[in-house]
Design a protein that fits this description.
276 residues, alpha/beta, Alpha-Beta Plaits, 2 domains, four-stranded antiparallel beta sheet, globular
Length: 276
């Protein structure tokens, strides 16, 4: 599998706007990121990349941040070797731990998830993933049906099964993410359905709980579909957006009978729990 690695040299004064850059790059089709020393790296499949769009992003946001970039072609490589040097396990309060196969186990942690961290989003290092996992530790999922939209590595789906969910469907539009999820399902010995696509992949089905960790624009666009798929008194967690976007998410959700009941914030990211 071939990837493009884009190496960004950001103006030091722009570092606080790095999350805005990531959000913009997400919209352009980039699907994973790496920070090392002063270099910020983003990865994208060649078929999804156009230099014109990246230049347009640079010009459009020049008041927020300035960057130069270089591009190089990467063949599939030993990503685990890279992660092993830099990837640390994550503990979510004292209830959940996310680690790679090469880390030592957490035998005293109630929910331990093993993730083979390749190119998919969702190792629990990102604020949105860790906040959703934190919310999930307090949720009753026993024998419920769960939809994980934008599943990435499948970490949230695996957590749902550890919480004794009866049916879990993981949906992602990226081939690599679906492959990574399949590997992680085997590692964690769980029964989870994987579907490639977007909200249409679960058209006509209903769920007790929906986990949607995507981005603001897609959440707003698919809000009617989420509300339609949610069972009566069902719960949905929206994340992947900033605190300043909460009012637009909350307002759109209210139009479809979804009521905000809890939020978590971390480094300007937010996870919001709604009920039908």
């Amino acid at each position: 599998m071939e990837f493009l690695e884009i190496n960004f040299l950001l103006n030091p004064d722009s570092s606080e706007n790095r999350e805005i850059l990531i959000s913009e790059l997400d919209d352009l089709g980039f699907d994973s990121y790496w920070e090392e020393d002063d270099v910020f790296r983003a990865y994208i499949m060649p078929v999804n990349f156009t230099a014109e769009k990246l230049d347009e992003l640079k010009n459009r946001n020049e008041e927020l941040f300035y960057f130069n970039y270089t591009i190089q072609n990467l063949q599939e490589r030993n990503w685990n070797e890279l992660w092993e040097r830099n990837f640390e396990p994550v503990q979510i309060n004292d209830q959940c731990a996310v680690r790679a196969p090469f880390h030592k186990p957490f035998p005293k942690t109630p929910y331990e998830i093993i993730i083979e961290p390749k190119m998919a989003f969702g190792t629990a290092h990102h604020e949105t993933t860790s906040m959703i996992l934190d919310m999930m530790t307090d949720m009753d999922m026993d024998r419920l049906s769960i939809l994980d939209m934008g599943s990435g590595t499948g970490v949230l789906s695996i957590m749902a099964k550890l919480k004794n969910a009866e049916k879990v469907i993981a949906v992602d539009n990226d081939d690599w993410a679906c492959k990574n999820t399949a590997e992680n399902i085997i590692i964690n010995k769980q029964d989870i359905q994987i579907r490639k696509g977007d909200i249409d992949a679960v058209h006509g089905e209903t769920f007790d709980i929906i986990l949607a960790n995507i981005n603001r624009n897609i959440l707003l666009r698919h809000m009617p579909g989420y509300a339609k798929m949610l069972k009566k008194n069902g719960q949905i967690i929206f994340s992947g957006f900033y605190t300043e976007d909460l009012e637009s998410i909350k307002g759109k959700a209210a139009k479809y009978g979804l009521k905000l009941v809890n939020i978590e914030t971390k480094n300007n990211w937010i996870a919001a729990l709604f009920v039908a």
